[in-house]
Design brief:
Residues 44-71 form a coiled coil. Keywords: Coiled coil. With 179 residues, the protein is an all-alpha fold. The chain has one domain (2-135). The protein has two helices and no strands. It has helices at residues 2-134, 137-152. The relative contact order is 0.03.
Length: 179
């Protein structure tokens, strides 16, 4: 029994050693778990801080982009308003120019009408004179006879009198022929 007791004590010592080693391992692992937990918490905190920093940066970037967009929209609006003002001024100038040209054209038209009226009056006066001259047709007959005698003595050929767009009522082409 003494051997058994020694054997038991030895086994007990071995188990105690193993339990001590297991406790040390547990303690070490517990420390590592604590470290990991702390590291995880720190990483989580750092990650959250990083996320918060990124959110803040994004908000700043958005504000900056919004400002730039607003500035560009305002600049485009100003350019549009300026070009519209310039175009409206150009339209007013064009309207004025057209009005002046229409006025000038109207005055030119009236002037041409007046010229035509004067020519019509002159033509009417000529008609009246010609009507008076018809009475003196006998004088014309004598003049024609005189021309005939003058042309009969002449033998100059004047060539074909036919115009580009028209006809002639004679075949004679000597000087003095009435066509």
């Amino acid at each position: 029994m003494k051997n058994l007791s020694i054997s038991l004590i030895l086994e007990q010592n071995k188990l105690s050693t193993r339990i001590g080693q297991a406790d040390a391992t547990i303690f070490r692992l517990d420390g590592e778990v604590n470290k990991l937990t702390v590291t995880e918490l720190v990483e989580k905190k750092e990650r959250n801080e990083l996320i918060e920093d990124l959110k803040a940066e994004l908000l700043q970037l958005n504000k900056s982009v919004e400002r730039k967009c607003d500035d560009k929209v305002n600049a485009l609006q100003n350019m549009f308003e300026e070009s519209t003002t310039v175009n409206l001024a150009g339209c007013k100038d064009l309207k004025t120019q057209i009005s002046v040209q229409i006025k000038n054209l109207s005055m030119s038209f009236i002037s041409e009408q007046n010229k035509l009226s004067v020519r019509m009056d002159q033509a009417d006066a000529k008609i009246v004179r010609l009507e008076g001259g018809v009475n003196t047709l006998a004088g014309f007959s004598r003049a024609i006879e005189w021309l005939k005698t003058r042309t009969e003595k002449c033998c100059i050929d004047c060539g074909d009198p036919t115009p580009d767009h028209g006809t002639v009522n004679t075949t004679a082409t000597t000087y003095g022929t009435v066509v």
